[in-house]
Structure formats: structure tokens, C-alpha cells
Amino acid sequence: MAINIPTKSEKRASELRDGVRLLAWESYKIENSLKGQKAFDGYECFNDEWKEHEIHGFNLVAVEKFIKALGYTSEEVLALRSEVYERKAKMNGQKSTISTSTSTISTFDEAPY
To answer: Would residue 103 count as lying in a domain?
Structure first.
């Protein structure tokens, strides 16, 4: 394994992609009527589709343009992301490691929230 130190731009693009993933997951759950255990079971299928999405090839400028086309601002997406991770931390009885100013990624598993 190589050590990869992302640039500030790459880090922000990754955080924004994660926020878009959370938006997409919420929509996916609603569209497919996934609640409770069905949501946990359905996340694997969603995640497979998510990994194929074109956003993964976007640089920061392209990710920000994509978000704008959806009608959101980057700040709104990062705020949503922070809220989701804060809520997950509370549900797990943990203190959050999400920074509200930079939305630092915590050590939480990727799971359906």
C-alpha cells in the first residue's frame, strides 16, 4: 500500500462526493421504500451503483458544478454531511469527530444512515 496525501482540493472534492452520496442514499431509500432492515440490506445494491457513478472521476471544480446543477451549494452539502455524521455519532453514543468548519471525515463505517 502506498501512502497517499491528498491535496486540499482533493480532500474537499472527496468530502463533497460523500455529501452527494448521502443525498443519493436518502433519495434511493425513499424511491425504493427501504426502511429498517430493508435499508441495511439495500445499501449494498446502492453502494454498487454509487461506485459506478460518474462523480468519482470529477475534480473539485466539476463536483462543485455538479452540486450546483442539483440546486445545492457546496456549503449546504457539507452541512448535510456534518448533520448526518453528528446524528450517527449520537445514535452510536459516540462523540463526533466531524469538524463543522472543514467536515473532517471521521472513523465511522460507511453504512446506511
So the answer is: no
